[in-house]
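Async update (no meeting this week)

Hi team, since we skipped the sync, here's where things stand on the single-chain job. The sequence we agreed to prioritize is pasted below, unchanged from the tracker. I ran it this morning and attached the output directly underneath so nobody has to dig for it. Comments welcome in thread, and please keep replies under the output.
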Amino acid sequence: MSRARTARRIAAGAAYGGGGLGLVGAATVGLVLAEMQFAKRTVGTGLPDPPRADGLYGSEFGGPEQSPGPLRLGMLGDSTAAGLGVRRARQTPAALLASGLAAVAERPVQLRNVALSGAMSDDLDRQVGLLLDDGAPAPHVCVIMIGANDVTHRMPPTQSVRLLTSAVRRLRLAGSEVVVGTCPDLGTIEPVYQPLRWLARRVSRQLAAAQTIGVVALGARTVSMGDLLGPEFAANPREMFGPDSYHPSAEGYATAAMAMLPTLCAALGLWPESDRLDVARDEDILPVAKAASAAAGQAGTEVTAARGPWVLLKHRRRRRVQAEDLPTPPDPGPDTATAGAWGPP
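Output:
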């Protein structure tokens, strides 16, 4: 069965309440579990909690009291969204995105990160509640990075997509733009061996495609994380992965942030000619399932709604980046950190 057809089945099951569509045959379950346990022991844990990056970025463009006030950026998801594996707040993807967004918009950005290490899609409802249920204004834009733990904990993909689309729907109804970094390609994790590597790649890319189908229908945009843990990570694992050989390093997070920043800016209308297709870069207007399948295998590929069942497939990411290529955000200090509120709207 093609990836596009499988993704359509998963997304349809999520939308209409279908059961858990299995992605791994019963005959392979025992082998997969044995390999997964070995991979977990090899990867290990023990990383300190990710640094807190909440606060005001781009203060050189004005303070919170100045009209129109800061842009509000919400970050949701799992350990990758939280920035597990780096020591400084400024190295987390949320801080890099906030700093980059402030530089493009020439406007300060108030960041609130509610992502949780180890989170699966069933934690998104709680995370959305933290952003929306405290009486503060909704974020202008939210970034969600989720899916890896759903795969490793064998959450049924229909359930995973259903939970993600529910969270996106709540944010969209609150007035937020949403960008989803889809499930990364788990087949690139260094300690994972065959045949688990092939299975991990297959199921994670199928989930990524189904996530795209589900959230684009709600007016969100997706960016493929698949190949970000692909050729560059496979070719440079010592640089791109952190000390546990699972989570990205500072350079890896910078690569992910650079891939997502153009889409984040485009969602707010800040990227020049943001939705004009470049045929020289193989960009196209495609049916959503075909575009979702193509995006799942290529890093930095954006999918956004066009008209009816058609979507735009865009390749915004142009090159590998070093951490220093992004604006360097300061670590939020006592004068900029927030305890849970956005500050002035």
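Quick observations from my side:
The chain is about 40% helix and 15% strand.
The longest strand covers residues 71-77.
Reply here if anything looks off.
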